Amino acid sequence: MNPVTVSSAAGLLAAAVATVAVGAYGLRVSRTTSDFLVASRSVPPHLNAAAISGEYLSAASFLGVAGLIAKYGADALWYPVGFTAGYLGLLLFVAAPLRRSGAYTVPDFAEFRLDSRPVRRAAMIVVIAICLLYLVPQYQGAGLALKTLLGLPVWIGPLAVGAIVVINVVGGGMRSITFVQAFQYWLKLTAIAVPTLVLLALAASDRGELGGPLPPVVGQQTTVAVETDVEVEIVDPSGVRVEGTVDGIAVPPGSPLSAGRHTLGTGSTVTLAPGARTPVVAGAPTSGDGWLGGAGLGGDHRLYQVFSIMVATFLGAMGLPHVLVRFYTNPDGRAARRTALAVIALLSVFYLFPTTLGVFARRHVPELLITGDADAAVLLLPSSAIGGTAGAALTGLVAAGAIAAFLATSSGLLVSLAGAAATDLLRGRVRDFRWAAAAGGLIPIPLALAASSFELSRGVGLVFAMAASTLCPLLVLGIWWRGLTAAGALAGLGVGALSSTSATLLAVSGVVGPATFGGWPAAVAGQPAAVTVPLAFATMVIVSRLTRSAVPADVSRIFARMHLPEGLGMGVERVPRG
Amino acid sequence: MVHTRVEVAEQTGVGDVLVRGLVRAQLGLAVRMALLVAGTMAAVALLTGALPGFGAVTVAGIRVNWLILGVAVYPAMYAAGRIFVALAEQNERHFIGVIEQGDEQ
């Protein structure tokens, strides 16, 4: 058996076993519903920050960021920057008041603030929708990783990750998850830092060329199988040979391709001679200069795309239920602020590595750009750039980090999904939490299998857009604006959810072509936040003004409780019924 | 004798004025910090878009747009967060100071 496969299998297995073992350790201390939901509010900032980072760094960060950077270059840098900046937004506008509200989930905050069961229910539906949609790219990433590393069929990954996560969450709830996730941050950091540092050392010893333009050129004879139809752009056709179907016409082995755009059919094989310039999936920069300078993220309206990513990621982290639920586990508002600050530091350190790996991927595995499956770059880099026993060992390490990424994020999502469903749909007992977790963990599996090959970071970006257009305005206006009413909140949640969901559906289905109306509909559907977030905020404000008389009578008391520091006798912890 | 602490807890007229002041101070601080950070980032995005030459400047062999977005932006965000935490806690200490003064009188 191939040493890379053996080492990957060992890495995957070790990370999975360690996850279950650390979870089992936490299980011994999980007894009450409060343990399951908010770890009895006793998690100190440094542990909580590691847990939040461990939970937050998903497949999109571990695999997707490097892939996007390899493919699109400078403009893809906005994704990791935004993923980090989201915590600055959370720190500035949400962390301390949310914790001081004493709520235990986002729907509970909605009821605390507006004293309205319908708003609570609407918030619960949004929480469940965001968690389910966010689980899909995690499961997809697991399928991709197991296929890339072990050659397993693509459905095994979602099934395996789903099973492990359900077992862990059903077993221990939030208490055990806190330990698991803090552990997984450090595992992920190690798994991505070590290969990056080894590659950097190698690059330094054999004349680094990282600063220069990197036209994607293969070093040795390379064969790439096309698994779904893909449109590629070819700048220099020398050394590029193809077999299969090109632009709908069957071609014999060894056929040359002309420069320009071509559609390669499913089942085609592209062979690249050493030194040949790889074809690049249409829409990605083809030249080293475009890649270095920033040439958009596919499609038109580059500046709009960049701004929309900024809006989605800066505001989206504030609306991610699995992140918010961790802030409720802090002992007080001060600790919540310190936790958010520590998360910024931990994420900053982490993202340096996938960024660097993205640059290396363009140099060492440019053939990924043909099919556009750049998400596999991190997994393939160690064996193709380093090779030998060291390469195999590092592949095992990366595999362990990848599985940790899927497990950590999926567990966190499932805890908040189950928390919201158990307390609001069911009766809030530990049993209900477990049933909700089992159901929530299984539903996204068929969705992940059905979803087309969507880049992980992009899929996650759409979930961020949805979070930024729904829960973010609810929290920000709820915390800072006394004029918010239940009707305004309901209308804003509805408009934000509908607009961002329809944009996502349009983008995934690919109904709007890049040529329609100058490319604007496609650009907005692909990056909807810059439109849907202001829309949701405006709806909430306007409808609240129209229903001004419905402002809760005790809004002053509520504001005092959210904003006053602890120690003034205002803090009251809310506990779930049951 | 005025018991400010009790007033804040029970939300009488004086207490509400104090709470409004604190909320306004914290919101102003958060908004200023957000505008500073988002404005700087928007300027970087506009610069790389409007001036292709900006992306071509290199420092130590690495393009300056990569240095800013790939490295420098992270410590800058942390610094912004740290300053915010310090100032927000200062606002809270000031608020507690006002209340305790009120209680002593």
Structural notes for this entry:
- The complex is a heterodimer of chains A (578) and B (105).
- Chain A contains 24 helices and seven strands.
- Chain A has 578 residues and is an alpha+beta fold.
- Chain A has two domains: 3-207 and 318-453 and 553-563, Up-down Bundle (Sodium/glucose cotransporter); 222-277, no CATH class.
- A four-stranded antiparallel sheet of chain A has the order 1-6-3-4.
- The longest helix of chain A has 50 residues, at 156-205.
- The radius of gyration of chain A is 24 Å and the shape is globular.
- In chain B, strand 1 (58-59) and strand 2 (62-63) form a beta hairpin.
- Chain B is mainly alpha-helical and 105 residues long.
- The longest helix of chain B is centred in the C-terminal third of the chain and has 41 residues, at 64-104.
- In chain B, helix 2 (13-50) runs antiparallel to helix 3 (64-104).
- Chain B has one domain (4-104).
- Chain B has three helices and two strands, in the order H-H-E-E-H.
